[in-house]
Amino acid sequence: MVFGKLIRGLAKTRDSLVGGLRRLVGRGPLDADTLDQMEELLYTSDLGPAAGQLMDSIREANRKGILKEGEQVEPFVRETLLEIMGEASLPLVIGEKPHVILVCGVNGSGKTTSIAKLSKLLLAEGHSVMLAACDTFRAAAVEQLTIWADRLDIRIVKRNTGADPSGLAFDAADAAAKEGIDVLIVDTAGRLHTQKNLMAELEKICRVLGRRIEGAPHEILLILDGTTGQNAITQAREFRESVNVTSLMVSKLDGTARGGAIVSIREQLGLPVTYIGVGEAADDIERFDPDSFVDALFTAE
Amino acid sequence: MFESLSQRLSKVFSGLTGRGRLTEGNIEEGLAEVRAALLEADVHFRVAKDLIDRVKAKAVGTEVVESVSAGQMLVKLFHDELVEMMAPSEEEGSEPISFATARPTVILMAGLQGSGKTTSTAKLAVHLRDTRKRKPLLVAADIQRPAAVEQLRQLGAANDLPVFHVAGEPPEALARLALAEALRTGRDTVMVDTAGRLHIDEALMEELGRIRSSVTPDTTFLVCDAMTGQDAVRSATAFRDVLPLDGVILTKLDGDSRGGAALSVRHVTGTPVRYVGVGEKVADLQPFHADRLVGRLLGMGDVVSLVEKAQEVVDEKEAEDQMKRMMSDRFTLDDFLKQLRAIRKMGSLGDLMGHLPGVPAGLTDQIDEKALHRTEAVVLSMTPAERRRPEMIDPGRKRRIARGSGTAVDVVSKMLKQFEQMRKMMKQMKKGGLFSRLKGAFGGGGGMGLGDMPDMEGMLPGGPEGASSGGRSVPRQDADARRKNRKAERKRRKQGRRRR
Question: ipTM for the complex?
Fold first, then answer.
């Protein structure tokens, strides 16, 4: 596990969350004012409902006299966060081949870039990878994925913009099976989870994949934009409602204070986060692990 | 889905209705509810805090008028305060774009990755061309993201808009060259699509500054994803620090996010929201309405749009006349038909109810729109005389009407019976015709009389009986009120006779 990148990527998160926490807690006994400021810190990290939960336990511990000094807060928050995050998520296991990974998410969440990152990771692990450009809706989405495929020198199955994505998915599955490819990654058009017909289209793509390769898609990866607020939870819930989302990848975790959404999603939906995107280059991908995530939040540079 | 704020507040304030006074003590819990709603909507923590302090100062001491609950009162206070915050100030004015006179107008589009800049650029161009008679030239200056240039080209081609790009040129040169190209080709609006960037990426932020100094944009828009969380404030501030922002375009508002980011961005950067993106098609860009976003933010449903819809189709005077007639014996099937049509003009009942807060999603699917059509057909198959005096409809006439409307005799009978019941009920009603009730219910800021909608439907034959059990029968009045009504009615009639 390359800690360095995660730590660098999350530097801003840490600046604002933990840095703030450190500043706060250096001040001796916990008073109401400090608690209020702590609440602000937690909420502004997009922890959302988890922030409320954390504050409740902090306040209760304070009332009970367990938590009296400022310096006790950091270990307490860390422990509580870890408790919420639960077990480490399982890595993406490439089982029977071709292993089909379907990638979905709302518009602009970073699907295409995430696919490029994931492909590079899988290539480095020694797998052969093929892409299916099933975002035939957005202008130039096919071209965008093609550029990545060329850069990574992998095969891409595509049709023109406006083509039927399910038909294309079938062709790709067919090609992957015939050519003995290890992993087929299927890109799909961005869709808001409120658009019923588009969600139905996604279901259809899954069905069609399963018709050509038994058990496909083996993995349905939902890409969530790390800057998204509380809507991230609704998105995850709605996508899971239509297709069997198996894990999440959180993109754009390279800006400012973020990462809070992961806690909320993990806490509310129990869905594992498999990968996080921590930069703009194809290498900027990390396997997600709650321990190191929380550790990274608390590691001083 | 979230429970609507009004519902949550009415629970909190169930004990405090009418004649009370809002005090710091009794609104504390309500304020906490509003705060939770704001945070759930991704309003920045500090913005929410500010707002609550302000409303608290206004609320304390306010008298709760009879007929509204304290919760509704509080929601109204928040609503008004938020609308004031969100709406463009007087000096910002209602014109989103300052058009140049001596040269082509330059519009710069900036924003984070994946916020929807390229799509919004095309949408805005189409909007300006179709509604403002502008001749836009799109400039593909996002040379970072793979195929971004191609994306704008395809959007331009699909919508008959010229797209400018020269391979190998840096964005600031592209903008400058595009301006010259616009002058040469007679385009009067140059729209520069830039690369999405993370606000912490200093190199890219500097690039925006260079584009700005090379073409001096007349208007700069920040494109902002409505689903953004607390980070919205930080990124918007960073953008504002490198280039003066004139407006915000809020995208992906067709999802179910509450759009609290907009409020935060507005509050912190002082930049007004000007347009909203509400769908995948190029036409799906609308001018921004502060009140609508506020309703959404507070989880009140789109009550404002509904009231507007109602106002569009309901003629005040007509409504008043109707009301008077309803109260009298002169309410005829013709009047009924008019009302039916006015309701239909407002859209489908399902759609109408979808606008209301607190209406369960399933309910709107159960409404039988066809019943309204059938009822209309039945009335239309009657002669004018029959419509004025339904008493005269004998079995023979019923058979004719049933044939004419393509229904059955029992449908006609049922409809007539229900009309008679309705007429009786109308006479009993203390005040307000269907419309004034409707309008009263929606017009009163936070006061939403949901109960009125099902009533209205139950009067129609073949309506979705049993779709929702309660609230659809004749409004229950206590015996006292009924007696009083009858007395008033007798008095009115007596006076009528005297005048004659």
Answer: 0.85
